[in-house]
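Hi there, hope your week has been kind to you so far. Thanks so much in advance, here it is.
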Amino acid sequence: MISPRARSSFAARVLVVGLVVAGCGDDLPPQDETGSTGSEEEGGSSSTGSAEYDQARLEILAPESASIHPLGEPLHLVARVVDPEGHALEADDVAWRTDPGEPPRLEALEGDVDLHAGIYALTATAHLPNGDRLETTVGGVRVQARWTGEYTGDVVLAVQAQLPSGTPLVLTCQGPLDFTVSLDGTDAPVDDGACTIVVLGQSLPATYAIEMVIYPAGLVRGTVAFSFDTPVGAFDLPIEWAGAFYDDRFSAGLEGAVDLPFIGSADVSGSLQALLIDRYVEPDGG
């Protein structure tokens, strides 16, 4: 049998323990429904780090639309992925194509590519870490020879000879010179021309046909087939010439001797001059 004093002592100890437990309860970590004591702010975050790409855009900095680039030189490509504030973001999965079904020309945001003569639409595609796919295209990018373009100018021919009677003969012909050099710079059909010459006081129609062969670096050689009829016979003069393309023009000269029917030797001189008026031409065969 427990004495009253013992029961009083036991009750006092229980009360003390209860007070201690109640006082320490505020220091215990709170428990969630699963019993975990961790929090997301303390290291339990599940972020993938790709949220910065959610509103990203892909920009092409080079080349520009409708720009012209010299054939035979690398074409420099530059693109970038940026956030809404314009800050650059990393992008490793990038591809440049000139046709959707072809292999990539370049697999980086920036680099050089070699392209044949032509007019291109260049498309840059980037696959972002957040799963988005960005695509941007720049069109009308021209790769062509430095002398590609449309030219217009004049042909001037002068033929000097002496008739059997000793009378000097001077023939002059001045007419148009119009031609277009292809994108690859190797083909330049020249329009036939016409002029009026004066022979022994008579005005006679004359025609000329020009052929040119273009060599590397824009050097050119060719012939002028000069034709006209006179009271003393028909004249067909094939005359050779040489020239070159410059930054904004074409220039050639001719000088030599030819044989004229019924007359004999004659001196020929002249020039072919044309200005570059338009670098933007249609593709070969277009």
In short: The domain at 149-278 is CATH 2.40.128.110 (Lipocalin). The radius of gyration is 43 Å.
